[in-house]
Amino acid sequence: MNTIPQSTDVVVIGGGPAGSTAANMLAQKGYEVVLLDQARHPRPVVGESILPHFWKYAEQLGVLEDIENEGFLLKAGGLTIWNGEIRQMKLSDFGFERPGMHVERDVFDNILLRGAERKGVQVFEEVKVREVHLDDAANRAVSYMDKNSGEAGQIACKYIVDASGQAAVIANQLKFREFDPDLRFMCVWGYYENSDYIGYGGQIYPFEDRWHKDRRPVTFASGLGDWGWCWHLVQKDLTSVGLVMGPKEAAKFKAGGGSLEERFARGVARVPVTSKLLEAGALAPDSVRAIRDFAYRPTQLCGDGWYLAGDASAFVDPINSAGVAVSFYTGYLAAWSVAASLEKPERAEYYRTLFDSLVRQRLSLYRISALPEGVNSYAEEDYPLALQAAQFEKNSEQELLLVQVYLTHRRENLRRLYEMDNRIKYDHTDRYDTLPHLIGPDGSPFHIDEPDGVMA
C-alpha cells in the first residue's frame, strides 16, 4: 500500500456508492482526495435492486462501460403480493430508456471505487478512521489506524465527507444520530442457489432462463405480517432472499430456536410463493446475515468543514429501491457543495444550508413513501419537506413513486401530499396491473391459497 499523505484537500470516509461518487467528482474538479475504507473491496454487501436512475451517474463517473461489461442481470420491473393481491409494474412505462438491474453489490461497489481511483483519488483500504477533528478549521484532520500494520496516523484536510455507512463516524462521534421509532425493523437475508424466479406477467421461470431477453426477472416482494416483507432478487449466480420484520414478527423469529440459518430457512419456507420459488434451490453455505433496528436519522447533515452522504446521513427503509439512488444523489451533492465552498469560502454557510435543505427534502419523501399507512412520528416535519421534494420531480417520477407505493399498500402518505398540493400526482394510474394469479412453470395458474407472509 502506498503511504497515506500527511495532508490533502478532502478526506472521504467510506468506499461505497456515496463515498466513491463524492471522491470521484471532486477529483474530476482537480482537488486532491484521499479515500479511507476500513474494508478490503470487494466486500460482502447484500444483493440489491437498482432503479435506472443510476445510469446517469455511471456516465458522469466514467464507469458506464465497466458496469455494462460486468453483465449484471437486467430487470423488467416489480411485482408484489400484498394481502393476497398481485400487482406488477414495468419500468419502461415511465420513460426509462435503460433498464434497472439486480446487482451483486460487492462487485458493483468495487467498480465504482476503482473508477474513482482512475480519476486520481488516492484509495486506502483496511484503514479504520478512529476520530475526526473538527473544532479548529486550521487544524481539521482525520485520525486513522492501518488495520494490517496497527500503525496510527493523522491526515490534515480542508473538508471531510463522511460516507462511512452505518458506522456513521461523525454522527456517532458527535452523538447526533437517532433511531427512527417508526421503522424499527429486523432484517435477515441470505442467498439461494438455483431458485426459480418471476418474470413480468407473473410467469414463474427456472433459474437457467434468467438471461433470456423475453424472460427478464422482476423484483419480487411479498407482504410479511403487518409491516414487513420478504424480497426475492435473482442475480447472476445466486438469488438474494431477505426477511424484513416489524417488532411482532421479529420477536417470533428470535423465539423460534435453532441457529440463525435454521430460523431463516424456516421463516422463508413459510412465505407463500417465495417458498415455491425456492423448492428447487438450496441455501448457500455461510450466506445468512442479520441486522436489527437499521433505520435511523441524524439531527445534522453537515457542518463547518464536513458533510454526510449515503447511509451515514440516514438509512431509509429500502422497500422502494431508493438506497443506492440516495447514495448517488447525496454523494454527488456533497461533492458539489465541497467544491463550491473551496472555490468561494465566503459562501460556505450558504452551500451547507442548501445541501441540508435538499437532502432533508429527498429523505423525507422517501421516508413517508416507505412508512406503513397511518404511521409517522415526524409528521409535522416530514410532510412539508417531502412536498418540496415532490414538487421538483417530473410527472413521470411522481407516477413511478406513486405506483411503487400502490404495489406495497403504502399510499396514504402520498394522499396527504396531494391534499397539500393537487399538482402532486395521486390519481389512479394505468401504469400498474393487478393479476388474478401467477403462472406456474408448467403453464397452469398458480393461486395463493393461504394468508400471505405469516410467520408461525
- The counted number of beta strands is 27
Low-pLDDT stretches are: 450-456
Q: What is CATH's topology name of the largest domain?
A: FAD/NAD(P)-binding domain
- Strand fraction: 25-35%
CATH architecture of the largest domain: 3-Layer(bba) Sandwich
The gist of it:
The protein is an alpha+beta fold and 456 residues long. The protein is 33% helix and 25% strand. The protein folds into two domains: 1-45 and 105-179 and 296-377, FAD/NAD(P)-binding domain (3-Layer(bba) Sandwich); 48-103 and 185-292 and 426-456, D-Amino Acid Oxidase, Chain A, domain 2 (2-Layer Sandwich).
Task: Please tell me about this protein's structure.
The structure is a single chain. By secondary structure, the protein is α+β, with helices and mostly antiparallel strands. The chain folds into two domains: 1-45 and 105-179 and 296-377, FAD/NAD(P)-binding domain (3-Layer(bba) Sandwich), CATH 3.50.50.60; 48-103 and 185-292 and 426-456, D-Amino Acid Oxidase, Chain A, domain 2 (2-Layer Sandwich). Helices cover 33% and strands 25% of the residues. The strands form seven sheets. Strands 5, 6, 14, 17, 18, 19, 20, 21 and 25 form a nine-stranded mixed beta sheet that branches. Strands 8-2-1-12-24-23 form a six-stranded mixed beta sheet, with helices on one face. Strand 23 and strand 24 (306-308) form a beta hairpin.
